[in-house]
Amino acid sequence: MNGGNGIAIDVKGLSKSFGGREVVHDLSMQVRRGSIYGFLGPNGSGKTTTIRILCGLLTPDSGEGTCLGYDIRRDSEKIKRQVGYMTQRFSLYQDLSVRENLEFVARLYGLADARGAAREMIRRLGLSGREEQLAGELSGGWKQRLALGACTLPNPQLLLLDEPTAGVDPKARRDFWNEIHALAAEGLTVLVSTHYMDEAERCHEIAYIAYGHLLARGTVEEVIAKSALTTYTVTGDDLNGLTSELTGKPGVDMVAPFGTSLHVSGRDVAALEASIAPWRQKSGLRWQQSSPSLEDVFIELMGRSKDNFQ
Amino acid sequence: MSAVDRPAPAQGPAPVHAIRERFGFLRRSYAMLIKEFIQLKRDRVSFAMIVMLPVMQLMLFGYAINTTPHHLPSAVLLQEDSDLARSILKALENTAYFRFLYEVHDVDDFDNLLKSGKVLFGVEIPRGFERAVRRGDKPALLVAADATDPVAASAAMGSLGMIVQTALKHDLYIGDPPEMPFEIRAHARYNPAASSSLNIVPGLVGTILTMTMLIFTALSVTREVERGTMESLLSMPIKPVEVMFGKIVPYVLVGFLQAFLIISIGVGLFGVPVLGNLFLLALLSTLFITTNLSIGYTISTVVQNQLQAMQMSMMFFLPSILLSGFMFPFAGMPTWAQYVGECLPLTHYLRIVRAIMLKGASMQNLRFDTLALAALMLLAMTIAVTRFRRTLD
Question: Which PROSITE patterns does the UniProt entry name for this protein (chain A) (predicted)?
């Protein structure tokens, strides 16, 4: 096995267009082995397309790179053996039982004891007693669990998970993430796309992609620091009125309500402070400078990218 | 199911499974094949279709063909009211083939009855018929048949002359003449050529197999695409040719079962002979089944969705029925239609199955058609494997 340099995914300049629309633009990224890499971005930002390029389901129009040391253009058959891909939509056979689905996957990958491997996975997933149930009859949480089980059955080195927790309840989400951390601890590399900020914060590294462009990457702390965003948290009365008054003022890049408070952020500290000065003394409002949350950073990034690319 | 009965996440390291590299092709095709079998088993409707379709078609077609129809609605155009005319009508009705529903005196009424389909037969007794018979002029008794359904008409037509003669033998009025005292002139209207019923049961074997085999595989790939399972299948290490074998092999067995069913019913219920070698018939039927499955599979790699797959199957199925020699005699078709017919597997299989069942033909006689079937199969498979998209591009 080559690629033992500690890098699982190393791609440069990936681009992909569909019908003249560029879905992924000049995307470069590196993912360390054994890490959990979060892939964030709004709907239609090119996350799924990037994941499909990485596992050989799509050919990039331009760009190059390696996945587990194999060339993503030439060695897609070899990559497929080592990669478990969990699709956004449940893509196991709904009219096959839990056991039959797992045995099918085990046979396709040529596991020596397909039945034994399936039995072991059923036990591991806690699906004992449900093995003869049709996959289509499982609830959302169980389906997602089964899909993850099917991906990990052939002992892949890399897991590509495309919004695996969409539409799953919080308890199941937490269990799922515990499982992912357990797998990463065993040396598996995990690339996971998500919309949830709490999930992003559980990743070792994150990348933010919008409209096909990779806008930020690094650890959560790095991304926040690099955003150079100054954020004030405002609490008090009539925050709705304040929102409309502050929006669009020079230096105010983002005004976003967070529960009972309001986050006012901007990159240009001086301009921001000048703009909010008239309201800082207003009675009934409490201003406090705070560090921006990941969500602040992303919403600001999304707003900025909209200006640039739409 | 609620979140409550969900167990804690799995603990402990994932087991590492041994992987066998040898015979990968067979292993992966086998994985696909088992999966297809299970899905087929779960799909009750398709399963019912496998058995019910041939049985129903055979019963409907077969009985309509092989049972001699009785009490066919008939009309008589009576231009003279004589005892002889009455005797002949009585004799015709006694055969149980005819049932006289209308008695008309006008030629136009007579024609209209036939045209409208109210009657299948019309007997015309011309004016001065009895006198002509007595004079020994051998006048003509006109029997007009609606031969748009030749099968229905032919049995009654064939036995007409003999029946009338036998019936009138004991008629004192005529006595026991050495020959027919009058001539029966039969007109098969609308469709002068009648096809042989024995041709149809062997033909049905081919037609039913074409229809069911095409549809089964024509849906197979598009179904995976529509259900979203193709995305995961493509991300796994399986090759297009392995997917194809895995999807075709289960249906070869299904088709074989169907062929067996149809031929058994044909032999058992309709008395169609199998003069040739049964093993040869089974072998060449399997080839024909595989050819159709490959074509169906090719369709499924070309179309976008299941509806298109059905439409394209029909577009292939219709010319198969019309130009293969099932519906019309192959030799009677124009040259261009014969060329098209030669490109259809059903044409070759009809020759094979008719020749083996009815003429006792051997492999020696069927070399050309066997090769043609094999060539069509290989062509379809090649197109399918090259058309199969390995990526979602």
Answer: ABC_TRANSPORTER_1 (PS00211), ABC_TRANSPORTER_2 (PS50893)
